[in-house]
Q: What sequence folds into this?
């Protein structure tokens, strides 16, 4: 009986303690507009995540201000957006090659200087010492030029890489959004959006299904993978068309792994692209002719080769 009484007392004390704790955190629940402790934990986690993202955004803006030579952020964004990413990537590769050549040259001159120093020490006090010293000075001058070239190339490469990374980040979000919209249409709503896993290195593209599940590119079927790549290709092309001369879009048997419904969706998307540039689709499947005519409202021009 004594043990039962002790247990009841402990139970009452525990209940009182829980009531005190619940009363202590109730103002926090009211402030966060949640009913349970689990919901409060989730709200706190969401607030922490928001503060972290906000800090990253503020740090990014501060970094841009520090390296933009006093230019307004809008002007820097416009200048970067006006650059051709393909040319920047080629220039970065060219600069990297020049950097490797400069490093090789520097190592050669360092070796030459070391050899000159050894020869000088060996002939110190002899008539050839003056000649050796002159050769050493020449080597130092050549090495100094190589070092200056190395520093210039290294700095240029770092600045160029920074510009490419920033331009890539600014253009990635609108490109991903447009590709996501096209992917939803091409899969007839089987997938609802695309996103990038920021924790992966390198980043991984994720496809979200209509039922709430998601899958990485490697887990897609062959046909769905084809639709994803077409969505990315068309999104990049549509961005290109906003600031460049339209070029014909040529597709060769791209529907070979598609079912008829998604083939229709593909022709619908290509028909919209045809209002901006010429679209040519090559196929060996004669049954796609009727699919194309239906999807384009009879506007597709058929040419049998």
A:
């Amino acid at each position: 009986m004594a043990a039962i009484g002790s247990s009841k007392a402990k139970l009452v004390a525990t209940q009182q303690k829980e009531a005190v704790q619940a009363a202590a955190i109730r103002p926090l629940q009211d402030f966060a507009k949640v009913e349970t402790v689990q919901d409060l934990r989730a709200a706190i986690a969401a607030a922490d995540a928001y503060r972290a993202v906000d800090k990253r955004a503020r740090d990014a803006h501060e970094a841009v201000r520090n390296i933009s030579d006093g230019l307004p952020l809008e002007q820097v964004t416009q200048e970067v957006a006006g650059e051709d990413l393909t040319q920047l990537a080629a220039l970065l590769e060219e600069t990297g090659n020049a950097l490797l050549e400069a490093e090789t040259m520097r190592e050669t001159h360092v070796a030459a200087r070391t050899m000159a120093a050894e020869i000088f020490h060996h002939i110190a006090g002899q008539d050839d010492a003056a000649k050796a010293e002159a050769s050493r000075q020449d080597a130092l001058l050549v090495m100094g030029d190589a070092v200056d070239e190395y520093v210039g190339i290294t700095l240029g490469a770092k600045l160029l890489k920074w510009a490419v990374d920033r331009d890539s980040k600014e253009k990635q979000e609108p490109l991903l959004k447009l590709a996501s919209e096209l992917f939803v249409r091409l899969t007839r709503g089987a997938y609802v959006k695309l996103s990038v896993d920021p924790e992966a290195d390198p980043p991984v593209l994720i496809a979200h299904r209509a039922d709430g599940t998601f899958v990485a590119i490697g887990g897609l079927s062959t046909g769905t993978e084809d639709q994803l790549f077409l969505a990315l290709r068309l999104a990049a092309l549509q961005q290109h068309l906003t600031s460049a001369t339209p070029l014909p879009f040529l597709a060769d048997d791209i529907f070979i792994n598609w079912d008829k419904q998604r083939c229709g969706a593909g022709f619908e998307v290509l028909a919209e692209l045809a209002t901006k540039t010429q679209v040519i689709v090559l196929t060996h499947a004669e049954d796609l002719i009727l699919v194309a005519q239906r999807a384009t409202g009879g506007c597709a021009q058929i040419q049998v080769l």
Remarks:
- DSSP finds eight helices and five strands in the chain.
